[in-house]
Fold each of these.
Amino acid sequence: MIALGGASILGSSRAGAGEGTDPAVRSSLEVVGGALPDKSIGRAEETLYVYLSMNCPSCAHFHAVALPELRRTLVAEGRLRIVYREFPLDVRAFAAAMLVRKAGDRYFDALDLLFAEQAGWVSARDPGPTFRRLLAQVGVDREAYDATMADRPLYEGLSAIKDHARRLGVRGTPTLFVRGRKVEGDLPAAAIAAEYAVASTRDPRDRAVEAAPGGER
């Protein structure tokens, strides 16, 4: 399905909720890992970083449930920017991430489609037909699809994002960085909103973030 080589599935143990990072790691969150630009929603000084894999059920749940609520509230109010970064857990997720990137400005539309039909293409013997049908809706035709599967710079760009995430301590998905603190699991929108409602003068290391259970590893 993908001609550029495999991507290993990362096993990991679940870290403590709200696990902190040192100042150097918090600062490095602002650095884009590799040549690919960040995909983001909203404009604000506060940023929520979300590392996800397209084959992760908990990522799909976060995208379908928490993200719309955050967009309706914090993002619409100009209080939060949300950055999505890819952390593909296997070869199929890598292919999906490459195709979603190919959608360009319709990146989040493509995510909507692939997450909505995740169960089908994840379990399919050949996900190609489903990928082609869904991506055609966001302008990725058959020729663009074939070219994407052989796009080494794109593959290497996603690999660089994943490598950068590993250096930040990401081991599974979804992993969120809330005010610079690592949280593993499908965190509800209400818990995220509560964190960003806290006065900005308060040290984020003094706050506890309760992570929801679950998460593809």
Note: The CA atoms of residues 102 and 147 lie 10 Å apart.
Amino acid sequence: MQPNGHSNPHQHPVPVIAHVLEGTLETLVGGVSRTYRAGEAVAEPMNIPMQAFNPGGVPTKLLVVMVGAKGKPNSIAVK
């Protein structure tokens, strides 16, 4: 994710773990903001709208693991 970049609002119907490899990740879930730095991991909540941000001045690199099922979405856009 580029500096000052962000994801669109979304939710995951499957378990998702994100490990911050480089940079900073900020998540907004249910109105609560949390910040994760390189070396930290976050278990993203299932079926709860969220958004991810890069508040830093360098790109954020993540290792993301999703446990899904064939033919089913891992992420759903929230309007």
Note: The first strand starts at residue 10 and ends at 11.
